[in-house]
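User: For my dataset I need records formatted as: sequence, then structure tokens, nothing else. Please produce one.
Assistant:
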Amino acid sequence: MKTYHFFSFTFIILMLPACMKKQKNPDVIISKDYKLVWSDEFDYTGLPDPGKWSYDTEGNSWGWGNQELQNYTESRKENAWVSDGVLRITARNEIWEEKNYTSVRLRSKGKGDWLYGKIEVRAKLPEGIGLWPAIWMLPTDWEYGNWPSSGEIDIMENVGFTPDTIYASVHTKAYHHSIGTQKTSGIYLPDNRNKFHSFILEWDENTIIISVNENRFFSFDKEEGGHEVWPFDKRFHLLLNIAVGGSWGGQKGVDDSIFPATMEIDYVRVYQ
């Protein structure tokens, strides 16, 4: 399924406290409403767990709809590797199938698909002009049609030319960048490249809330208008990736001196 991924420059800047202390106890009930149903603690060594993750490469030939410069690879330790309790997704400056950069786009599709819940990804982001790391969700079944009709949830996006700001967005048929109606907010997080932070989605039948370290900075409520404004009543899956360049990430060019560039993921936890 072709995926077109867009963005907005409209954001709200808020201050955050320092990052949360790392905790490795996913079995705890985090509230009276949520219990853990799926996780990857990355407590192994090797390629990402094939029981939980697959590699999305199908858009390499057409730039993923964003004129991106990388090719995503599959089962290649140079681009995705787990060790010391951390998943490392690495973008590299190297020729791969006629493109000058490689990276990885991991997805949980068919192995982790959810309707509603709380998703928490604790990550440390890469640094450098031309990078576009993201933690986000797409519909598994595309029941309302191609993008943007079936929706998209961006839990975290960052671009290298505005490194201190984290963005969260949703995209629907009624609300998306192509027609200037996007729903996006941003939060000031200047230490995102040297400290881990928790990027959190809370999603139920009426609202989507996105937070960093429990600091809420984006919300989107269900409105009248059916699936054109609220397609978020179907199951979605998670994606983790670093894009290089593209219609947003490449607006200030790409600094080749920054490579290799790595996003580190401490854990992924899904609660319902």
